[in-house]
Amino acid sequence: MSHPAVRLVAISDQPLQVSDVLDSLDDAASGGLVLFVGRVRDHDHGQGVTGLSYSAHPSALDRLQEVCERIAGAHDVTAVAAVHRVGDLEIGDLAVVVATTAGHRGSSFEASRALIDTLKAEVPIWKHQRFSDGSDEWVGSP
């Protein structure tokens, strides 16, 4: 049974839209909304990044749902949303968008931080970075 606060959970090969996440969280009980947007940056570990791709294990969506359910149950929130992109991304593209709402800002800040940190630690989505010197790196792969 899904937690009623979990409003949007998705893994998509299409560009992410912050407005989709915000729209999913709209309700009159929320006094605070904390949003985190992860974007593809042009550097990592002192090297220039030219682009990257994300791959997801077939269980990734179920794991993302479980993480959202756990965060919703552990924090005093009114809504939770998380979306992650897969496929080829360019510099500046949105890779992940997470947000929570709560009656007060403190709960939403705590829940959003826990949501992104737990997602990155537990959801099997792997990043393949391409560097400007021609080398590459897999991040988060088993």
UniProtKB/TrEMBL annotation:
It is an enzyme of class 2 (transferase). InterPro entries: MoaE_sf, Mopterin_biosynth_MoaE. GO terms for biological process: Mo-molybdopterin cofactor biosynthetic process. Keywords: Transferase. Pfam families: MoaE. Its EC number is 2.8.1.12. GO terms for molecular function: molybdopterin synthase activity. This is Molybdopterin synthase catalytic subunit. It comes from Nocardioides kongjuensis.
